[in-house]
Task: structure prediction
Amino acid sequence: MATPASAQIEPYIGQMMQTGFNFCPRGWASASGQILAISTNTALFSILGTTYGGNGQTTFALPDLRGRVAINQGSGPGLSPYVLGQVGGSETVTLLPTNLPKHDHRGGIQTANANANSMTANGNALGVSSNNSFIAPPPDPAGNLMDRTMVQIAPTGGSQPISNRPPYLTVNWCIALEGIFPSRN
Result:
């Protein structure tokens, strides 16, 4: 009968896995962007190269999945192309007026019924009825036509960034440093 340790299938060098525990098993390393020496990891370097960083002469980097979502390379119908090792995205975004749908900020005024006076117009005036009379409210002794605090059209918002992340669950990503060298066919 096989024990759990011997029942484990040997991984491919460079294979990545997620774990629910807070460490990577022996022969694996955290996919946290570490810089490794080529001289002690020649097989892994021959697979990864400098796709994820390093100078390519003495060092190379492991993928860095801290705070990132892994996606497949290539493109699908109607989707942008993605190259192996490419990083992008942002944890937060600040919306600008150009990001919002077209709209306006019209103000409306509701008036209450008020007593009105009937007055006779002197001479010809725009909007005068055929009998030269019109209706107007009594004049405000203070000269105010309307309370200006009733309608306010002004900028609003604070240009604060908003979260750009869907719901998530944090797990531990590991990459195999040892194992079977993957064939290309």
Observations:
- Residues 22 and 172 are 6 Å apart (CA to CA).
- The mean pLDDT is 81.
- Strands lie at 16-19, 28-30, 35-37, 59-61, 92-93, 117-120, 133-136, 162-163, 172-176.
- Residues 42-48 form the longest helix (7 residues).
